[in-house]
Amino acid sequence: MSTEVEQQPAPAVAPITEENGVPAAEATTAPNGETATEEKKQNGKAKKEPELAKDPKEDFSGWLKQQNNKAVHKADYLLISGVIDKAFPEGATNKPSLPENGFVTKREFVDKLKDGFILAHLANTLKPGAVEQIKEGEEVKSEENQKANVDAFLAVAKEFIAEDQLFTFEDLKKGKEHHQKIFNALLHLLYKTESAEIDQFIKEIGEVEPEKFLNKLKDRFISFAVYTRTLVTKPFTRSNSQTEQPATEEQNGKNGVHTNNTTETSHEENGVSNGTKVEEKKEEQIPAVAAN
After folding, report:
1. Segments forming the whole domain that contains residue 146
2. Are 96 and 112 in contact (CB under 8 A)?
3. Is residue 169 in some structural domain?
4. Which residues have C-beta within 8 Å of that of residue 79, sequence separation ≥ 6?
5. What is the DSSP letter of 34?
6. Cβ atoms < 10 Å from Cβ of 77
7. Which long-range contacts (CB under 8 A, 24 or more apart) does 191-199 make?
8. What's the number of domains the chain is made of?
9. C-alpha span between 260 and 239 (Å, rounded)
């Protein structure tokens, strides 16, 4: 008599997930239906490590981006001031001026350089006699002369720094959009020619404190108060349609009376004249009838 032994089925092997390599049986499920491993990944992506402070001597552009807006405006002022001081001798009558508050915006920074007047003088300082004729005054208002100044500067600057580190005339025309490229080129040029004291430059920028929020709020409140006061104290004036309407009605009233009087007077005059003419015609016809 043969006995059959029932074979127990082999235990199923939990499949390996492609994403994390963890057996599905071991992967726990989060309350929202997602696996714990997926939740850990998402939490890892959400948490970003704070950006480390950069060294201005190694990455000046990156360091400057970490500064507040007021510090950036100070950097623009210091750089454009250094360019002007190097380009023009002390006491020069044609030396451009800068704001007295010691800050320059990105737009002002680029606008000062756009016509190439300062840059052409800087080129002559770096290489005396390089630019024979600098366009200035009324001449520099034309785009052609502006480009001539800038191109003359670029030709000299290439002898000191690499061409790919320079900007172009088109960059200047686009304004503050290419501010960083123009800023980096001039800073690198002055640093290479040993005319910029980079340590002092960095120190002055780093000492600029950000503008406090309460000060901003106070300035905006004062501006709003002045604007509101102007509206309140401004004398009320009617619109043209309101001011002209009464005058028109009054004028029409006067004209109506005048017109009626004129009409009545004309009718009276016409009545008298017509009556007189009719009577004269009747008188002329009566003798004629009597004669017949």
Report:
1. 60-214
2. yes
3. yes
4. 109, 183, 186, 187, 190, 196, 201
5. S
6. 21
7. 192/160, 192/161, 193/86, 193/126, 193/160, 195/82, 195/86, 196/79, 196/82, 198/57
8. 1
9. 32
Please state, in angstroms and rounded to a whole number, the distance separating the CA atoms of residues 168 and 134: 18
The contacts of residue 168 (CB under 8 Å, 6+ apart) are: 150, 154
CA distance 109 to 94: 18
Whether 155 maps to a domain, the answer reads yes
Half-sphere exposure of 152 (CA within 13 A, CB side): 27
Determine, yes or no, domain membership for 97: yes
Q: CATH number of the domain at 80, please.
A: 1.10.418.10
Q: What's the sign of the alpha-carbon dihedral 202, 205, 207, 213?
A: negative
Q: Distance (Å, rounded) from C-alpha 170 to C-alpha 145?
A: 14
Taking the whole predicted model, whether its pTM rises above 0.85 is answered as: no
Cβ-based burial of 105 (10 A; exposed 0-12, middle 13-18, buried ≥19): middle
pLDDT in tens, the chain (292 residues): 445 555 555 545 445 444 444 444 444 444 555 555 555 555 555 556 667 888 888 888 888 888 899 999 999 999 999 999 999 998 899 999 999 999 999 999 999 999 999 999 999 999 999 999 999 989 999 999 999 999 999 999 999 999 999 999 999 999 889 999 999 999 999 888 766 678 888 889 989 888 665 555 555 666 666 656 666 555 545 544 444 455 555 555 555 444 444 444 444 444 444 444 444 444 444 444 444 3
